[in-house]
Amino acid sequence: MGELLGALFVFCNLKLILTPLPMVRWDALVLNFSWLYNVVTPASCMCDPANAAGIMAAIMMFISAGWSAGDVSLSAYIQANIPKIKTPGVKIANSLPSVMSFLYVLCIVIFAVISPMIGVWLDAFEMTAKMYDTRAKYAKKYSDTAQYTEFTATAASYRKDAVDQYFYWIAGVFFSLVSVVIFANTFMPKGSWACNPSLEEEEGPESESESESSPKDEEDGVSRPSSAGQVEVSVAGLAAGGEQSAGKLGSDNKAVVGVELTTN
Fold this sequence. Notes:
Blueprint: H1 2-12, H2 21-30, H3 42-45, H4 49-80, H5 96-141, H6 145-185, H7 205-211, H8 215-220, E1 222-223, E2 232-233, H9 235-249
Antiparallel strand pairs: 1-2
Helix pairs in contact: 1-4, 2-4, 2-6, 5-6
């Protein structure tokens, strides 16, 4: 539900939000709400476990809305800035889509590597708790009430400690560090210090070469592309000069001059 709300918010404000930076900043800020999972418990809320789960679901809906808004806005911005290649051999001056796509995939790979490590860390708590559960069964079998009570309490303590450690280090410390890194990186591009920034677009090498074309070449009808290709002389310009020279020789001596100069 939260992801749907975040995507709808981005869709309804496409014309208002010029770049994905505001949405990414929102995403970074809402990550800090995950600290609430460390304090929201049935005991702290003085409510039933079902009501506490409902409160945690509402918190997650708000956080997931920020995640969705950041992801959707980034994907839309990348797709909008992909240059359309019409002819083969054209060099792409805008490398933003390639860089952002690489970083996005790298983020997915990093999380894919970290998740099993977190799972192994949490499984260690569960394995220890199961060991004490086994001891409690043997103590119950031999009617050792004191040992049974101690082993059962120890197993429950390990399981509670696993949940507390997870929410403190992962949902708290780790997400806060990620929030700081993401929020700081949104101020790296040029012109990104505004609340709703409009990023400055840098001119590519092709546009610079076109702007540096000399007016003398335009008068002569010569176009000189930046690539080492063909240099063409305008047929129309030379034909007009040929007609003027042919008019001086007489009406019976008409000539049409067409020259195409090709350099490899």
